[in-house]
Structures are given as structure tokens and as C-alpha cells.
Design goal:
Radius of gyration: 28 Å
Structural class: mainly alpha
Shape: elongated
Strand order of the largest sheet: 7-8-9
Helix content: 25-40%
Length: 723
């Protein structure tokens, strides 16, 4: 039997499931909350199993053997991807740089800590062209050392060893980055629908770099930093300088660190654009199966490094690009430069009347010398007065430059690892750096119950106790392991003055806690958390539940000298749905802001649900507002929030922007008020399912236990010293 169909000769098999990344039925409702970001990297995606602990496994690694093998790899050129001048160092430095360079301080996301460059979209960013080859070159080492070394650690180690191979002494290195096994869904890379779309869409005014959309740092979709040819590809070094300044600031770098990274990064290696870029194959995600995950295939490579095409710019920055020296400054400031076109048609700067001996040799044929080149960002170091002054200081003191670069490189590649307590390995620097958020070890030789008794005697209310502990801990970001209750930085600038922390209420509570700390020997940080725990125990008892909230001693109290106040500013909460507050109206919906904070705190959707419902009945709303307080037993740890939210005897009426009344359906009387953050737990089908669990008659005890477990998780999120 034959059938008339339009399948082009293919057998018309029915799909039983969605097997491609295409729009599915769920996408018909694009405004729905993307709760999947709370459950990414589930254990089901991890082939290592729940018992595997990489941070323990890497401690068994033969560090010396791996680094020896890495050094050998640097100069073992392969025919399928030949090394420039027989050395892969430049490629490996770029691999590490671009893995780390996605970090942005505003939300702590990005960075090198997860090995995410293996997956889309990063593996196919235009700016990451041919880094797939670097990862394949590293595969023999990953295969050999297996579970004892993550891809994430391997990427950064490769960059460090490359610099050492070029004769540079790095500042140090830490192991301990754990791999993920699929793309990160929580990171916003931009709204553009095409690679390298003009910068304008990211700025209110592209001529004012500080108007770039937050939390973005890169100037165009698919770039890591700035466009090397200039703003929107138009050369103008001074204009580029301003974009460089903003971009690097959003990656937590000041002007000196930026200049050091630019010079140190471009002292070795080269750019690649010796040919027609149109001949290259598709990126890794777009390549056919026979390419086996490799992209940008160059049909004209012919086994010669000279023929490589990546960025389209072509040439080395220095005379000796396999040696770490002062050559970058010698050429940049020793010659005048003019605009030229690379063989691939890219805008680049080349020196005027350069001496033959100052030209670097060809990557394949050492008998041939080639012109060096500079990008627009390099010329910015010479043209911009601030960057120029820094570079002149570097030139006058090469040792100072090397030290600045070593520290900046270490910061770049370790910024998202969090406090030093998380560092592993023999090359961890002994020096404490302020961007690591140092914190002293706290006292443990005190009696927990005595501290709680003294807090109770002070007469603080449950709301004051719980809110203060929550505000201290909620700053934690799993994205870069910063924030949290350890250090009690809530009592220091800038946190003590944040609007979301209610400074007047906070000052009152801290005055009590300082005396309790002095009387008992417990740190203020521990007292803050114990106060919150006490408040919950009191509220649970009032509701008929005798509970003990688990507690870990040993938090320390940081000082102003240990705190980089400026770098803590991005941690300020602009909204906190758990306390039903936002600083002002935003384009983003309140429930989306709640979801974003829950993800940064490492909460699951059920944990987010139970915490919010519990916080409401405890009366912890910012400013004491009554929105979402669906109970007449405020201060008791009950499941009333969920009971009243799901009660069909109640109706819901909009009363303004982000304002609702909950009314009695029979008589129309207002019973409670609410915001979108409250009502989303009844309107979103997934969140309602969780709310219904906690509203059940047989689950009040489960609610209390789950609330305490989630609360304890938040309080201990930053206790890396005991993990």
C-alpha cells in the first residue's frame, strides 16, 4: 500500500516526544515563570552519580604530574590543528581568559567555575572561535587524569601553565571548580536574535557606555569583552577606551587591572585572519554530525598555522610572541600606527616604517617576518589619558607591571570561586586578597542556649529576629559564592545603609546583638543567625510545635578593612519577594525578581515556596506591610498562607498596579491584601501544586519541618569553612 504524503520520500514516522530545541506547546505561554532555572543541573544530568564529590576527588590528583604533562602539551604541535610557532600557549591563554571573562559582578553569573564553555551558547560564540580545538587538545589529559580533574579546572590550569611556559611567574592557582553537564539556563546573555548585532540595542545611548543594559558586560552578542575593530566595528580608540572601561568594571576590574590584563594578555600569542572568513564552516552547535562537535572548519588550513582564521584580524602584538617580556609596550609606544585591513578584511592597526628586526616571524616559516598589529582596544591604551599614564608607569617599572598582571590574571581566573576557604591545591597563595571577602574564624567555645536566653531577655520581636537574620543571609549568591551571613557584614558599609535592610530597625537589633556578643563570646554573625533561629522556634511553639532549628557555630566578624565596600554594592537587593518588597517599580515583574533571587540563593521551587509562605505568617514584610499576610495568627509558624491562598471561598480583585484584595465571595468584604508575588503561588500551575501540598490538613507538620530545613540551608549557604 502506498500513501500520498509530502515527506520527500522519508518514512512518515510520528514523533513521540520533543527531541529538538524548537518551540513546543509550552512556549505558547512565554510570560510563564521559567521555574526550570531552579532545577537545572539536577542529579539526573550528572553522569558521576550523587555520591561523587569532585572537591574531595581533586585532592587525590598528582598535581605535579598533570602540570608536567601540560607543559609537554604546549609544544607538541598536531597536524590537525598546528600550533603557532610550535607553541599552543597563546591558544590556551585565550581559552582560560574567555572561560573566566564571562563573569559579571552585577549578578555573579558567568565565569570559569563550571566548565560551561563546553556547551551552547558559549561553545559557539564568535569570540570563542576555534577554542573548540583547544578543548580537544586538552582531551588526552582529561582522559588520562579522569575524575580527578574537572574541565573547568583544566581550562584555567592550561592558561596558567601557558604563561609559565612563556617565562612568566603566575601568582598562584586553585583547583576545585566543579563541572556542570548542560548549559546554564539562568544566565541572560542578551535579547538579540543574531550574533554580533550592533551594540546599540544594549545601550540607551551607545555613546554613553554606562547606559549598557544590566547585567550585561560584553558590548555585543557573542563577544566576551569589546569589539576588537572598534565600537560597532568602526575604529575609534578613544571611544573604544570608554567601552573597555565600562566592560571591565562590570567584570570587577579597575583601570590598572584592565591595562595590565590587556598588555599581559597581548604580550604573547597572535590573532588569526589570514584568508577568507567566508570559507569557514558553521560553528560547533551548527556543524553536521561528521564534524564531531568541531566548528569553523577551515578547508584551506593545509596543516599550516599561518593559514588560520579566527577573529579575522591577523598578526602578533609583539616581536617575540612566545616570550613574556615588555615587547607589547615597546611596539605600541615605540611606533606610530595606521589603519589597515587584514587579509580577512578586518580593521586593524599596523606600525608605520617598522624595522625589520622588530617584526615577528611567520608562525610556520621562521625565515619570513610579518607585520605586527594592534586592535582598537590596544590603541585605546595609548590614546586614553588614564590608560596611557598607567602604561607609562608599567614601562618605567617592569617588575611592577608583572606583579600587577599576575594579580589581575589571578583575580580574573579565580573571582567566581568565592572565599579562599574554597581553594584547593599546592599553589594556593598565602596572601589574603580583599576581593576574596576574607573573614576570620569565629569562636565556638560558647554555650548556644546561653546566647539564645540573652537574646530572648532583650525583648526583640519575632519579626525583628527573623528579618535581621534573613537580611544578613539573603545576600548569598551561588553564582560567585559571595555574600551570606558569615562575617556579619550587614553591620558594615554599605549593607547597614541599604534600604532593603531597614537601617533603623537593623541598628536597633544590632545594638542588642553587640552586647550579647560581648557578654557571651559568640561572634555577632553567630548571634544574628541564632536570633533568627530563636524567632522561628518561638513562632513554631506558639503554633503548637516544639522544634529546634539546627545551628553551626564558628562564623567570624569581618571588619571594614576586610571589606571592599564598592564591590559589595552590586549585592544590594533591589527587591526581595520573601519580604514582599521592592525598591521601586521595574520593567521586570515582581515574581521574576523573586525567582532570580531564589536561583542565586540556590533554592529549589519547593524551598522557595515554603520559605515565602512561612515568612509571611511570621510578619517579616519590609516596613511591616500586611500584603500577603494571609493569617490572623501573625507570629505563629502556621501554614495559613497556603490554606487561605487556595481557599475557593476567597476571591481576588485587582486594586492597582501590583495590588490586590482578597475578598469573601459571599459578602464581598476584604479579608487580606496581596501583591503579585503572593498570588503567583496560586496562579502558576506548578507553584500552585506546591502550595496545595502545604495547605493540606495533614501537612502542617511537614510545612514546619520543610521551612526549618530551607531556612537552615540559607543560613549555612556560605559556611565553606565547614563544608
Amino acid at each position: 500500500m502506498t500513501e500520498n504524503n509530502s515527506s520527500g520520500g522519508k518514512c512518515p514516522v510520528m514523533h513521540g516526544s520533543n527531541t529538538q530545541e524548537k518551540a513546543d506547546v509550552v512556549s505558547w505561554w512565554p510570560e510563564n515563570l521559567k521555574l526550570d532555572i531552579l532545577h537545572q543541573h539536577d542529579s539526573k544530568t550528572n553522569p558521576m552519580g550523587e555520591e561523587f564529590d569532585y572537591r574531595e576527588e581533586v585532592k587525590k590528583l598528582d598535581y605535579e604530574a598533570l602540570e608536567k604533562d601540560m607543559h609537554e602539551l604546549m609544544t607538541n604541535s598536531q597536524q590537525w590543528w598546528p600550533a603557532d610557532w610550535g607553541h599552543y600557549g597563546g591558544l590556551m591563554i585565550r581559552l582560560a581568559w574567555h572561560a573566566a571573562g564571562t563573569y559579571r559582578v552585577s549578578d555573579g553569573r558567568g565565569g570559569a567555575g563550571t566548565g560551561n564553555q563546553r556547551f551552547a551558547p558559549l561553545n559557539s560564540f564568535p569570540d570563542n572561535g576555534n577554542l573548540d580545538k583547544a578543548r580537544r587538545l586538552l582531551w588526552p589529559l582529561k582522559k588520562k587524569y579522569g575524575n580527578k580533574i574537572s574541565w573547568a579546572d583544566l581550562f584555567i590550569l592550561a592558561g596558567n601553565v601557558a604563561y609559565e611556559s612563556f617565562g612568566f611567574k603566575t601568582f598562584g592557582f586553585s583547583y576545585g571548580r566543579e563541572d556542570i553537564w548542560h548549559p546554564e539556563y539562568d544566565i541572560y546573555w542578551g535579547a538579540e536574535k543574531e550574533w554580533l548585532a550592533p551594540s546599540d540595542s544594549r545601550y540607551e545611548d551607545v555613546d554613553k557606555p554606562d547606559t549598557m543594559e544590566n547585567p550585561l558586560a560584553a558590548v555585543q552578542m557573542g563577544l566576551i569583552y569589546v569589539n576588537p575593530e572598534g565600537v560597532n566595528g568602526v575604529p575609534d580608540p578613544q571611544k573604544t577606551a570608554e567601552q573597555v572601561r565600562t566592560t571591565f568594571a562590570r567584570m570587577a576590574m579597575n583601570d590598572e587591572e584592565t591595562a595590565a590584563l590587556t598588555a599581559g594578555g597581548h604580550t604573547v600569542g597572535k590573532t588569526h585572519g589570514n584568508g577568507d572568513a567566508e570559507t569557514l564552516g558553521p560553528d560547533p552547535e551548527g556543524a553536521d554530525v561528521h564534524e564531531q562537535g568541531l566548528g569553523w572548519i577551515n578547508p584551506n588550513l593545509d596543516g599550516k598555522a599561518t593559514n588560520a582564521i579566527t577573529s579575522g584580524l591577523e598578526g602578533a602584538w609583539t616581536t617575540n610572541p612566545t616570550q613574556f617580556d615588555m615587547g607589547y609596550f615597546d611596539l605600541l609606544f615605540g611606533y606610530e600606527w595606521e589603519l589597515k585591513k587584514s587579509p580577512a578584511g578586518a580593521n586593524q592597526w599596523e606600525p608605520i616604517d617598522i624595522r625589520e628586526e622588530d617584526k615577528p616571524v611567520d608562525t610556520t616559516d621562521p625565515s619570513v617576518r610579518r607585520n605586527p598589529m594592534m586592535t582598537d582596544a590596544d590603541m585605546a591604551m595609548k590614546v586614553d589619558p588614564k590608560y596611557r599614564a598607567i602604561c607609562e608607569k608599567f614601562m618605567a617599572d617592569p617588575d611592577y607591571f608583572k606583579d600587577c598582571f599576575a594579580r589581575a590574571w589571578f583575580k580574573l581566573t579565580h573571582r567566581d570561586m568565592g572565599p579562599k576557604a574554597r581553594y584547593i591545591g599546592p599553589d594556593v597563595p598565602s596572601e589574603d586578597l580583599i576581593w576574596q571577602d576574607p573573614c576570620p574564624q569565629g569562636e565556638t567555645n560558647y554555650i548556644e542556649e546561653v546566647v539564645k536566653e540573652k537574646i530572648a531577655e532583650a525583648g526583640l520581636g519575632i519579626s525583628e529576629l527573623v528579618s535581621t537574620a534573613w537580611d544578613s543571609a539573603r545576600t548569598f549568591r551561588g553564582s560567585d559564592m559571595r555574600g551570606g551571613a558569615n562575617g556579619a557584614r550587614i553591620r558594615l558599609a554599605p549593607q547597614k545603609d541599604w534600604e532593603g535592610n531597614e537601617p533603623d530597625r537593623l541598628a536597633k537589633v544590632l545594638k542588642v546583638y553587640e552586647k550579647v556578643s560581648a557578654d557571651t563570646g559568640a561572634s555577632i554573625a553567630d548571634v544574628v543567625v541564632l536570633g533568627g533561629n530563636l524567632g522561628i522556634e518561638m513562632a513554631a511553639k506558639a503554633a503548637g510545635h516544639e522544634v529546634h532549628v539546627p545551628f553551626l557555630k564558628g562564623r567570624g566578624d569581618a571588619t571594614d578593612e576586610m571589606t571592599d565596600a564598592e564591590s559589595f554594592e552590586p549585592l544590594e537587593p533591589l527587591a526581595d519577594g520573601f519580604r514582599n518588597w521592592q525598591k521601586k517599580d521595574y520593567v521586570v515583574k515582581p515574581e521574576e525578581l523573586l525567582l532570580d533571587r531564589a536561583q542565586l540563593m540556590g533554592l529549589s521551587a519547593p524551598e522557595m515556596t515554603v520559605l515565602l509562605g512561612g515568612m509571611r505568617v511570621l510578619g517579616t514584610n519590609h516596613g511591616g506591610t500586611k500584603h500577603g499576610v494571609f493569617t490572623d495568627r501573625v507570629g505563629q509558624l502556621t501554614n495559613d498562607f497556603f490554606v487561605n491562598l487556595t481557599d475557593m471561598a476567597n476571591g481576588w480583585e485587582p486594586t492597582g498596579k501590583n495590588s490586590y484584595n482578597i475578598v469573601d465571595r459571599k459578602n464581598g468584604n476584604t479579608k487580606f491584601t496581596a501583591t503579585r508575588v503572593d498570588l503567583v503561588f496560586g496562579s502558576n500551575s506548578i507553584l500552585r501544586a506546591y502550595a496545595e501540598v502545604y495547605a493540606q490538613d495533614d501537612n502542617e507538620e511537614k510545612f514546619v519541618n520543610d521551612f526549618i530545613a530551607a531556612w537552615t540551608k540559607v543560613m549555612n549557604a556560605d559556611r565553606f569553612d565547614v563544608k
